[in-house]
Amino acid sequence: MAKDRSIYVCTECGGTSAKWLGKCPSCDAWNTLVEQVAGAQPGSANNRFGAPVFTALAGAAELATLSDIEATDMARTPTGLDELDRVLGGGIVSGGVTLIGGDPGIGKSTLLLQAVDALQRAGRNAIYVTGEESGAQVALRSKRLGLDHSQVQVLAEIQLEKILATLDATRPAIAVIDSIQTVYSDQLTSAPGSVAQVRECAAHLTRFAKASGTAVVLVGHVTKEGALAGPRVLEHMVDTVLYFEGDTHSSFRLVRAIKNRFGAVNEIGVFAMTERGLKGVANPSAIFLSQHAEPVPGSVVLVTLEGTRPMLVEIQALVDNGGPSPRRLSVGLDRDRLAMLLAVLHRHAGIACMDQDVFVNAVGGVRISEPAADLAVMLAITSSLRGKPLPKGFIAFGEVGLAGEVRPAPRGQERLREAAKLGFSVAVVPKANAPRKGAKEIEGLTIHPVERIEEAMDVVRQLQ
Ligand code: TYD
Ligand code: MG
């Protein structure tokens, strides 16, 4: 390890130190020093006020007028896994860097092995760099996936310089680095997986991708809490960020695009983990519903819109006598939003849960961020509080504001049609989302349009 080649830079003030210190010698901030390769950072030529000095660094680079630059559309290569291509915006882009994050064991390695094998079979050279597992383990997985005679090249290596040399010599169409947390550069003394190593290695691999045209996929582990040494610091560096979601206990997995320079964000791909790998689910609208023979209190089906597809997700609530400081817990939904909805429920509909524990859950490990879930959450809470189920075939969606108003959700008609298609028969939705008077009705669905939360509660009381 070459200690003398690295320096420590403060993330707060940009000050530097030759060795690691708990406190930045320049600005006195704690735990802000991060290792960097000396010479690679602009702060090494600072003036006495800490501003970088740009003169006499190198010859000026050439400018181009925007309209003179040829706008070339990105060439995409479909991976052949339709659901993955959907989130990628059509396929992998040459020179593009993709980060795939997710909990350990969720299926990142499985999905990527399937993808690179499909690409290899389509005549694109693929290299799978494995730092987490041995070549034998990767081979075992490929057998399990039924990928016999796979021509994918496997490189069991974790040293960045060696990986780059191999990639440079072979110039594959796609290279998967599984995972970025295991890779280390011997230019830095920090341990593999530390922020400094992950950032430095990813920067080198990104540079390689841009220079060579190889599509690079970085695998990163993310813990449930989102606290991680790694992937989050890379998000701004890469072109596309995909996250795996889903409950490892259920077989369904969602891959969501958080950022995509080459396509739409918030598009999702849905897979089912089977004995032979991940299989795309082309019609995922009904997979997040649990089966109740008869309606149960505290359960409401929400029609949510994920990317371009409407999906039905069961929202469950449990309201129970709490102690002196009642708990509010949510899985798959935002907890702050839950607190807000409880306040709105109290203030505008007169339904108090002050002395109650309130738990809400989106079934199947799916994460719902859209505010259109509000109405379903509030109805589930009220249903649990009263111990009364909603009628059979009931669905709801709509955002609820602090003033108690029920606001329309985007593309309401599509949501209603999807619910009707799946046999749902009663809907409570924002007025603006209901078909206008005289417009064509949605067959099989009785729609109750509401404008305010108290109105929604009245409608539901009559239905129960
Ligand atoms: P893996 O891809 O190793 O997860 P990650 O790389 O995200 O850590 O997936 C591991 C899990 O998937 C493991 O629990 C076994 C299961 N699995 C299947 O159910 N079927 C399969 O065909 C394969 C390969 C794995
Ligand atoms: Mg893995």
What does this structure look like?
With 464 residues, this protein is of the alpha/beta class. It has 3 domains: 1-60, no CATH class; 76-282, P-loop containing nucleotide triphosphate hydrolases (Rossmann fold, 3-Layer(aba) Sandwich); 299-463, Ribosomal Protein S5, domain 2 (2-Layer Sandwich). The protein is 24% helix and 25% strand. The chain has 10 helices and 23 strands. It has helices at 82-88, 108-121, 135-144, 160-170, 195-212, 231-234, 335-349, 374-386, 412-421, 453-463; strands at residues 6-10, 16-17, 33-37, 76-77, 92-93, 97-102, 126-130, 153-156, 174-178, 215-221, 240-245, 252-260, 268-274, 277-280, 299-306, 309-321, 328-331, 356-362, 394-396, 399-400, 406-407, 426-430, 446-450. The strands form 5 sheets. A 9-stranded mixed beta sheet has the order 8-7-9-10-6-11-12-13-14. Strands 17-18-16-15-19-22-23 form a 7-stranded mixed beta sheet. The protein has a 3-stranded antiparallel beta sheet with strand order 2-1-3. A hairpin with a 5-residue loop joins β1 (6-10) and β2 (16-17). It is globular. The protein binds thymidine-5'-diphosphate and magnesium ion. Magnesium ion (MG) binds at residues 108-109, 132, 178.
